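Archive transcription. Copying these from loose printouts into the bound notebook so they stop getting lost. Printout 1 of 2:
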Amino acid sequence: MPKLTSFLAINLLVIFSLDVAAFAPTQPFLSTSRHQARTSNHVNSMVNNKEATAEALDLYLSKYGDKACNPGEAAVKRTFSEMCKVYGADNALDMVNTWPRCLNCDSTEFAPVFKIYVDKFGEEETLGMLKRNPNLLGCRAEGPNAVKAGDDAMYMSYFIAFTRPAGPFLLASLFGLLSLPVVEGITGIPIRANLFH
């Protein structure tokens, strides 16, 4: 039970942390017709990115516009732009829809952390994991709190996506269950023994 409790506690910390990264390679132009097609796609992509940026900014400002965590419109746009480069505009917008505060993450970490996850899980699985749990965008590639690309991150992304609709109620219940041993230790009352026997 202590291993499960520490596992859940660590994952709750990851849920509330901020930062991540990624890598999106480009392909060279092979012919003039491909270059024209690519130029057309690039113009469409720029329009889509502008629309996606506007939508992401609206989502963020509607939730955090007047809060202290808001770094300003320019910083939010830069972060979303980096997310678009790394994950693609549609994926980045999905992440912002799920958790608008991901726009507060350190965008310099997006590419390195994405690469770590891609090396472990592959690109499609990593994008799915990040869309299910964009809180992973708060991870760092290096340093004392560096991301470890373990299977637990993938499993927790499914758990978090499943429980996200229950929101704060489920989170408060989970916190209450995890804190039972602490409450028992402080009060001396065997709560679990009385509840489960």
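Printout 2 of 2:
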Amino acid sequence: MERVPGARHRAPGPPPMADDLLKLSGITKRFPGVLALDNVDFGVRAGEVHALMGENGAGKSTLIKVATGVYDADGGLIELYGSAIRPRSPAEAVRLGISTVYQEVNLVPNLTVAENICLGREPRGPLGIKWSALRARAGAAIERLGLSIDVRRSLGGCSIAIQQMVAIARALDVSAKVLVLDEPTSSLDAAEVAQLFGVVRRLRGEGLGIVFVTHFLDQVYEISDRITILRNGQKVGAWETASLSRLDLVTNMIGRDATELSRPFGGQAAPKEAGAPLVVARDVGRRGAVSGVSFSLHSGEVLGLAGLLGSGRTETARIVFGLDGHDRGILDIEGAHQRLGPRSSIRRGFGFCSEDRKAEGIFPEMNVRENILIALQGRRGWFWKLPAARQKTVASDLVARLRIQPPDIERPIQFLSGGNQQKVLLARWLAIEPRLLILDEPTRGIDVGAKFEIMSLVESLRAKGTAFLFISSELSEVVRTCTIVLVMRDRRAVKTLASNEISEDGIIATIAGEDQ
């Protein structure tokens, strides 16, 4: 790990400007059937780090893409140094001085560090690229960040953290005035985050305006000067970081007042624990994904994973189902240490509904019947094909039971609404009579009626003994549905709430770190 000078202190530099260096006013962006941004204002000053916060779908990515020329706004004004601009492409935005570094580093791993920094703008002479000048320019860009890296190294041999630094150096090579960091720390460990923040402080001290997008609250309070919150495509407000408590930050992100929250239906009573637990996790974790996960889950219990987007909820669910392995801690399945894979999980009667039903759930070219029966057929083995009559009976019964519309089992699933697609995925797992069902955001993007039916189904199955691992960004769903809640923050499990402790304000306080 290369040393970063001044990683703990803000580098000296000019004070922040009173006026915004980059200013977006009244930005509106529409997509078919969706108002993604509704009259949004946002600005970043020279010499500041401005955190852009909001839950998934709040409009953060769309706003950044408007500012950097990926999208053309339907309304509003973009100004840089007080002059109106309208970048038509990311390349034009870079020429104007607005550069973006994304979570996934978009560089060429088989080229050297120097070649990546100067790629597409190499110094040339009569005989081609001036390699000594290229390496000198790249070295100066790296030195500006306070790093010591051999620019002749292959980028692919560098750590993800160093690749992020190279991406920043490339962005600065074109005299960037505004630097957008979009989830830059999601793949970094604590030491690498400290290294990155040392670079950010150095650039802030030089007068750059830095937009910082993240879901990690601790990092927001460590590095940012101001915070702007978006929700449902609208600006909620902007605050000096020091004046906004963590509790108020979370409350504004989710759109609920913590002082007025209550548990409307008293939650679910915890069932009597009969026999050995179905799943026990002891300090389970996976490097770069999640850590410190401990719980005990019995039949008839609903374990909720609560936290903001990026807190480690989905990563935990994937480990339990066996989609991802764990490299620390112990995971016991029915009293035995296990390293499950999806196939063995299905054989045990475990099901998993992904939050991304289109990419990881449905098979869009297949019909409803085939989508419902694929897990049951997989458990039987592909050489023991379900008879056609049995397929029709099982699929038709589940379609009727879940009120899937239209009730046509031969209809391609891609032509169903989102809510009915979600019901088909639930039917898929009901066909194997699950003992444990993992539901990751099962009600996201569906109408109120479908939500009610799905949540009623969860309760009826729980009463019959099915165990659930339940993830939802809707805290009211977590409170009403779960018998236990494991609260997660910044990729680690921080607290377990028993049935009589579950409330929306309690969960919010724990997420914000103000429950201690």
